[in-house]
Amino acid sequence: MTEPARRPSEGPTTLITGATEGIGLATAAELVRRGQRVLLLGRNPEKLAAAQQETGAAATYRADLSELHQVAQVASEIRDQEGRIDVLINNAGGIFDPRQETREGIEMTWALNVLSPFLLTRELLPALRQSDDPRIITLASDAHRMARLDLSDPEMKRGYSAWPAYNASKLANVLLARELARRERWLGSAAVHPGVVRTGFNANNATLQARLWALVDLGAISPEEGAQTSVYLASTPQTPVSGTYWAKSKPTDPAPIALDDGLALRLWETAEDYLQRLGL
């Protein structure tokens, strides 16, 4: 972790996960340009240092967000160092082919895309309570419209496939953002579809599917364009965001299944059970 810069008297403090490349990096650069005090959270220390230099971010924090004990530890560091967080942008995520498990024995998509932002959000609520206009922005995707979420097997131990796992995780992001808004009415919680963005997404997978996705990248929007909705929600005062789903800087309707309050509650309880089993 770098030594945090002294907080200026104006401008909110925004923490961005997955902030060393792609949408996260573009979001950080634009929010710094708009006068915010930006904190970067990522896994690779060299990439974090480069991103801080490129964007002018105030500080960096390091953790492998797929490892939930590391998530809890870095959240504790952030609370101790920062005191107040105004905006949390849960941007980190990925797709994994073939199926992988973390060192904690959890399927990677479920761990990184769902449990990690769920835990980080929970652990940073005390810091967000110190803000006059606290917001949590979670990067989801319109891929949630194609999802089926089986809470009897959220890690897809039976019949794993990368895209269904990813789609289910994005549905989970929308559901949990809405359930958070219901539970914590003092903060704004929104899920965001950034669009199909040219970020090298899926490049970590050495499969035919990954090579085909590289062709999709040719027609995709830039990371700067993909960051626009997150930037808008993080920097527009008093925007009514809570419980909403956004695309192209406007609220829009998610898939009907994403509005299932009963499913959202069961998902929340499932996530809590996972954390309890890990002693978190």
Features:
globular; oxidoreductase activity; 280 residues; Rossmann fold; single chain; NAD(P)-bd_dom_sf; alpha/beta; 9 helices
Condensed summary:
Keywords: Oxidoreductase. It comes from Deinococcus radiophilus. The protein has 280 residues and is of the alpha/beta class.
Structure description:
This protein has a single domain (13-277), classed as NAD(P)-binding Rossmann-like Domain (Rossmann fold), CATH 3.40.50. The longest helix is centred in the middle third of the chain and has 22 residues, at 162-183. The chain contains nine helices and eight strands. The protein is α/β, with parallel strands linked by helices and 280 residues long. Residues 5-9, 201-205 and 213-218 have low confidence and may be disordered. The two termini are 22 Å apart. Strands 3-2-1-4-5-6-7-8 form an eight-stranded mixed beta sheet, sandwiched between helices.
